[in-house]
Amino acid sequence: MPALNASATVAVIGAGAMGAGIAQVAAQAGHPVKLYDNRPGASAQAIDGIDRQLGRLVEKNKLTAEARAAIVARLQPVEAIEALADASLVIEAIVENLEVKRGLLRQLEDLCSADCILASNTSSLSITSLAAGLKHPGRVIGMHFFNPAPLMALVEIVSGLASDRALAEGLYETAKAWGKQPVHTKSTPGFIVNRVARPFYAESLRLLQEGAAGCATLDALMRDAGGFRMGAFELTDLIGHDVNYAVTCSVFDAYYGDFRFQPSLIQKELVDAGRLGRKSGHGFYSYA
Ligand code: NAD
């Protein structure tokens, strides 16, 4: 199956860090994009943020003012989910919770046309479970972008047991047409990158809990000696502790409580306190 035609409408649900980035990527590729969030005003706010970011690229002569205006003109904030009915591809990037995502997919199945692809940006949840119980489970596929979506090339195209192979191929081609480097994977807990990354977070958090060293030292070691772009503490502050903790819990549960994936109580404390990282101004570090 070929890539989605650039004139086809793409709907993005969830105007947080990932939804805003994905909407920007689709609009940069030429699609009309509708951005919906159930928090009133959030979509318009996210599009303002994209506009400001594009403005910085114009200042650095990396984008023309005309291109900036054309990208922003393709982004439409919508306040009612019903407005997404004409989309050819819906990408959901809402909270990492199986039941909430399943409820949304059920709603979309009744709303969108039968040939609309329903993609999920979930980091770890089973695509097979997300699709189960729908009338057409074959059209549910994972399209997992990385943070920040406009900059990170990798996209995991995740097939569940019922996912239609031709649609997965089409989504793979679409990701390529959007300038990304997609990879096919099966729906296994955490898929590829989040599975491999779990020990990086878990062992760093255990070292902190055991008092081996502070966050800044551990981060610096991972960067300077380990060759990682970011240490685990600065990276989880960027990802958001609510999201990172939910992903760890989901992988831990999916592997029947395997100790390797055990969630960290230190991170749970941050989530309970609302210290979600950069997005709340406070995580392991302070961003005030
Ligand atoms: P976020 O908290 O920044 O944004 C989530 C947005 O979804 C919020 O604006 C919220 O208002 C909205 N929302 C929640 N429930 C909704 C609903 N029922 N209907 C409509 N809108 C709803 O979260 P995020 O970091 O953007 O993550 C979103 C998804 O992307 C999650 O599934 C997460 O696992 C995945 N993901 C996150 C990252 C990351 O680094 N943060 C990377 C890849 C994938």
UniProtKB/TrEMBL annotation:
GO terms for molecular function: 3-hydroxybutyryl-CoA dehydrogenase activity; NAD+ binding. GO terms for biological process: fatty acid beta-oxidation; phenylacetate catabolic process. Keywords: NAD, Oxidoreductase. Residues 9-187 form the 3-hydroxyacyl-CoA dehydrogenase NAD binding domain. Residues 190-287 form the 3-hydroxyacyl-CoA dehydrogenase C-terminal domain. Belongs to the 3-hydroxyacyl-CoA dehydrogenase family. This is 3-hydroxyacyl-CoA dehydrogenase PaaC. It comes from Metapseudomonas lalkuanensis.
